[in-house]
Design goal:
The complex is a heterodimer of chains A (112) and B (115). By secondary structure, chain A is mostly beta strands. In chain A, 0% of the residues lie in helices and 51% in strands. The chains are: A mainly beta (112), B mainly beta (115).
């Protein structure tokens, strides 16, 4: 069974540019989560999809971040325009049941 | 709101030595508690979880953790560390609001294993 796949694995962009991160969850998992870890700090929840609907987006930092989940399958997280403080590792996770989440390897975003 | 404290940022142990990683949580109800590990280049892997029942839980790779309500702790232990255990370890508490199951993580403890 394929795991959660994220790409790119690394992205370096300039301040003000746009970046789109993608997450492919495990097939059949209705729940999809995005988390972020800023360097040296804790991993923080960003948002939760159930199928294509946003269940909880309380962790989204500001309106420069836009998450979508097309047809309840893969998800994208767009940052536009990127700022220096957006640098970090973005994790995606998926689950079918509560608290049995499988995480991807993360996307390391560096904004310069 | 829930929170997790991992007081040790970095720990170094010798291969074969015992290990204990500390985790303290703050949560208003009975917590769901987790330990995850992230090895270099890998995603977060679940080591073990506590929902209810026996307060000593066994996980993968020979790890165990003990839930102590009186101390608000959920420390991770392993009796004999292997070099492959070098990684970053995250403690987390889960908030089940009925419609969401988001995790609150600690800042992580990086484990270095010397040969």
């Amino acid at each position: 069974e394929a795991g959660v796949t994220q790409f790119p694995s690394h992205s370096v962009i300039e301040k003000g540019q746009t970046v789109t991160l993608r997450c492919d969850p495990i097939s059949g998992h209705d729940n999809l989560y995005w988390y972020r870890r800023v360097m040296g700090k804790e991993i923080k929840f960003l948002l939760h999809f159930v199928k294509e609907s946003k269940q909880d987006e309380s962790g989204m930092p500001n309106n420069r971040f836009l998450a979508e989940r097309t047809g309840g399958t893969y998800s994208t997280l767009k940052v536009q325009p990127a700022e220096l403080e957006d640098s970090g590792v973005y994790f995606c996770a998926s689950s079918q049941h509560y608290f049995k989440a499988f995480f991807g390897q993360g996307t390391r975003l560096t904004v310069v | 709101a829930q929170s997790v404290t991992q007081p040790d940022i970095h720990i170094t142990v010798s291969e074969g030595a015992s290990l204990e990683l500390r985790c303290n949580y703050s949560y208003g109800a009975t917590p769901y508690l987790f330990w995850y590990v992230q090895s270099p280049g890998q995603g977060l892997q679940l080591l073990l979880k506590y929902f209810s029942g026996d307060t000593l839980v066994q996980g993968i790779k020979g790890f165990e953790a003990e839930f102590k309500r009186s101390q608000s702790s959920f420390n991770l232990r392993k009796p004999s560390v292997h070099w492959s255990d070098a990684a970053e370890y995250f403690c987390a508490v889960g908030a089940n609001t009925g419609t969401a199951s988001k995790l609150t993580f600690g800042t992580g403890t990086r484990l270095q294993v010397t040969l």
